[in-house]
Structure formats: C-alpha cells, structure tokens
Amino acid sequence: MKILVIGSGGREHALAWALYNGGANTVIVNPGNPGTAVFAENITGDPVEIAVKESVDLVVVGPETPLVEGIAGLLAQKEVPCFGPSAECARLEGSKWFAKKVMAAAKVPTATGKMFTNLVSAIDYLGQYPDKFVIKADGLAAGKGVFLPDTKKESDAIIEDLFKGSLGKAGTSVVIEQRLSGREVSVLAVCNGTDAVILPPSRDHKRVYDGDMGPNTGGMGAICPPPDVPFDFGEDVRERVILPVLKVLKEQGLEFRGVLYAGIMITEHGYFVLEFNVRFGDPETQAVLPMIESDLAALFLAAARGEELPPLRIKEGASACIILASGGYPGSYTKGHDITGTETVNSLVFHAGTAVVDDTLVTSGGRVLGVTALGEDIEEALEKAYEDAGKIEFEGRHMRRDIGRTV
Ligand code: AMP
Ligand code: GLY
User: Fold this and answer.
1) Confidence of residue 141 (pLDDT cuts 50, 70, 90)
2) Which residue's alpha carbon is at the smallest distance from atom 16 of ligand 1?
3) Ligand 2 center to 11 CA (angstroms)
4) Which of 84, 333, 386, 399 is the right S-S partner for 328, CB 3.0 to 4.6 Å?
C-alpha cells in the first residue's frame, strides 16, 4: 500500500514507522522530519495535491488543524481514502462546547459545564470559588486553552485576557466546568463511523518538571498501558463513551472515521471524559503504536472506508516513551545544537524537533526526540528507555526523570 502521512512531529514519525511496517508499505510524509526521511519519502507542498499526484491508497492525518479545516472533505472529493474525520466531526476537538453537547446527548460521563460569550457573566459564574472550576477556550488553542486558576485574581485575569482576544477567536467563547481530580488516562479509538477498535490505554505527563511541577508542555513522556488502569477499561470506554458518541454523530448524519481520543480522568466517583481530540495524542502515540502487532495500514484503511474493522493484536508487556526537550521549553529555547548518540541506542528514537544542517543532526524544536522502549512490564520498559535516553546528548537537553512513576 502507498500511504501519505501528514505532519512533522514525533507522532507522525511513529505513525509513518508503524505504517511502513518494515518495508511492507511505501510511506510518504508531508512534510516529515529527518527521522522519517530514513525510511520514507518526505515531500513538502499541498497535501491534497501530493495525494493525487502520488496516487496514494490512503492518507493518515496527524495534527488536528487540517482536520478542523476540512482536509477529509477535500480528499473525499478526489476519492482518496482519508484516515481522519470530516470538519463536522472534528468539531469534537475544535469546539469544547460542541463536544459537551454531544457528550450530553450520548450520556457520556463528563464534568458539568456551561458556555459563556460574555465576560461579566463568566466572572459572575466563577464567583468566589474559581479553584472549583476549569476555564476552557471553546476553540482550538494548540494546547494553551485550558486554565486551572487558584485565586479569584487569577481567574478574573484569565477571563479578561480571553475576552480581549489573547487566543484570538478561539477564546472569545469559553466553557467553564467543574474541576475534577484523579488519575488521567488517554484512550485512542480507531473508528469507522459506526464501530470502534480500542488501542491500549496510555498516560501522558504534561508538566515540564518532575513531580508534575512547572508549566504544561505538549507532553514529556508516556507509558502504555498505565499499570493502575483496570484490564477491561478500554472495553468499558468503548461501550460507554465511544460507541454512544458515534451513534449521536450518526443521528446527525455524521460518520466519524479516524481516531477519537478520549482524555479521561478516573476519580473516586468513577471516570469522566475531560476532552476529545480527533487525532492521535503526542507523545502517547510514540508509546502506543510500538505495542501493536497487527497491520495498522489495513485497520486505518478499513476505518477510512467505513468498512468492518479487523481485530487488533496487542503485544504482551508494556512500553515507555521519554521525551528529550530543549532547555527552556515550553518557554523560549535555543536551536541548532548538535545531537549525538542516536545511533548507539536499541530503543526506537522518534524525531520531533530535529533538522539536518551540513550533514549533522541538530535540534530545531522544543520537543526534540522521543525514546521508546518495550519491556515485560512498565518498570523494564522505563529502565531501558531511560538508559538509552541518557546516551543521547545535546546542549541544554532536558528530560523528566519520573515518567511512569507519578499519576
Ligand atoms: P489540553 O490537553 O491542553 O486540553 O488540557 C487538558 C488538561 O487539562 C487535562 O489533561 C487535565 O489535566 C486538565 N483538565 C481538563 N479538564 C479538567 C477538569 N474538568 N478537571 C480537572 N482537570 C481538567
Ligand atoms: N498528549 C496530549 C495530546 O496529544 O493532546
């Protein structure tokens, strides 16, 4: 099969690697990165034009923005199967309020929330207890749209900034919802419009420093599966969350074909969906895909065409992915530092923020590399991943030392 993967991060490197499947398929990545260039062809330019020109059998979309902007519809016009939902379905990620409404209709457990388009009523609603709520920009905000204020002063400032346009149009409608506490789990479901296959659950670690301190990042590491998550959790989420959501969408004439990612919190009172994404998680994908034994290309193609989904075979054991980031990330950081040691390790090394300059691999982003190892259990996977992560060096390299050890 000839497959086009859209994107350039660690998630897309992991997708391209899994779909390449040791040479069973031909993979093009648009635009790709130095890691994907090793086994795939990186092509820049318009993805729809590339898909047509290269006569690909399948397009797999990595990031959310092209999905929300309607790439699936453009590919459908050209009769190219697209693994990634239509713009209408992508509103599950593109509008927090749309997601809330679908969840209510599907009776999916989620935090109670309200939508506000007016500053005064939003501030009023938060009242004197802003620490009991979460403030979310309604629209896409590249991971910067969720706020957990501790004081009234903080929450007033957040709301004022949002309504002033700090996140553009994305933040001039906000959803304010009840704050929950518990353990977070990411569940990725491959959907064909009516049915779903659940990938093994995973856990991302979003804060930049050990002990869940410091600002949120795109994700500093991931494990799969989290050892504290019950064995049948994925199946329960399929029945109580994913299938009911597919049904509600279908009733609106929409077929979700792609990955539906449920960000879930397991609390003392059961589990709740915090958010949906309409694409693979990053870095979760870098931990989850290496755990899958079956042919992902066949699975994604069936989903893209709305056909029956083949069953999934998962490897025994567990996996861990450690992100090596640039010093200063998610704030400002310098680029262009030489990277050494990637060829000396046994683990999978997925590229996120790298570039090749004068034949030398250098840093070019905040999250630079993801180092993924498999093991008989999560401890063994972590041990191997950390051992190899330690062998890869670049100036300012930063990694968390407690991935998989905190919730
Ligand atoms: P993001 O992935 O950027 O949308 O951020 C979502 C993160 O915000 C989640 O991973 C949680 O840590 C946090 N979050 C979202 N909703 C809630 C909620 N209702 N209660 C507590 N934390 C939440
Ligand atoms: N790792 C979180 C996300 O991909 O949204």
Assistant:
1) confident
2) 274
3) 10
4) 333
